[in-house]
Please model this.
Amino acid sequence: MPPADSEGVTPTGQVSSTSNRKWWRLAISVALLGLLLWFFWPLLGELQAAANLFRTAEWIWFLVAIIVQVISYSSLTWLNALSLEPFSGKIRFIPLAGVLTSMAFIAVAIPSAGLSGVALRVHLLRKYDYLPEESLFSLVVETTLELIALVTVALIGIVYLIQIGGLSLLNIFTLVFLGVLVIVIGWLVWRILSDYERSKNVLRNFVQFWNRHAKKYRYLDFEELDERLVYFNQNLRRYPRSSFIKFPISAYVKVFLDVITLGVCFRMFGYSIAPETLMIGYGLILTSSGLSALPGGLVMTEALVPVIFSWLGVPGAVAIAAGLTYRLIAFWLVRFVGYVSWLFLERRK
Model:
């Protein structure tokens, strides 16, 4: 008996494709977890010693680490406030910090490669009269500047590795090539966004391509999008010159304070970690989080942080204790605050 008009029919091909994606994601997650256990295996004997370190820890440094992390997140909030400055809405500092922590929470609660956080940002900032394209553009500005600061930290560690002969010529060439590629892509994106006619041509080509191949999902109206582009380009030109000084300051303060938080976690257990080891390890942590198939680097990063620092010469027990403490402060505490912030922000009409 054929289904009624009101009943939804899911194409067999779509079901098969969705099922295949689920199996691939599961396979990748299992493979990564197996690799994780392989790397973490040598540290299993250090778990008891790590537990003992918590009994003798200097807990005043735990409070210091939280304070430093709060200041770091305040710098991120300042960076977002600067990126939203020329646009039509108005939001105060504390609610904006709540939006950022809410994004961090929802990205873990609803794993979607970060898309759930982006959607929540648009939703919450709309309550403060920001248009969706303003929310998205400001996010691109903030993310780009933060990425530049993160790459700088990684480069400092790479320079140290070069000095001690830890990188081959092929490694150095690859890093230089990737660095130049990022700079060129960034320059091209800015060149397009800063010129209305170029942006319009790119938008027209994108809309034509989308409507040719994907209009069954959603048809895009070029005239409507062009009106938003005009408004967006006008606001882009309204960034004050002072922002181009404040932008890098806020981004670098955020990242370097996050690195300091990690260093304070080691100091909590009586270990003075070398600055170059700290920065190299921090860069590797970011890489491992990005490569993990699980949301936000869950589980993978918790175990890989101790592994990374043990590879860099930190005693295994200290690496475990400091790594878990850092993740508690910089990841889980932020997500907990984000959950509370989300509940309050949703009450705003």
About this structure: The radius of gyration is 23 Å.
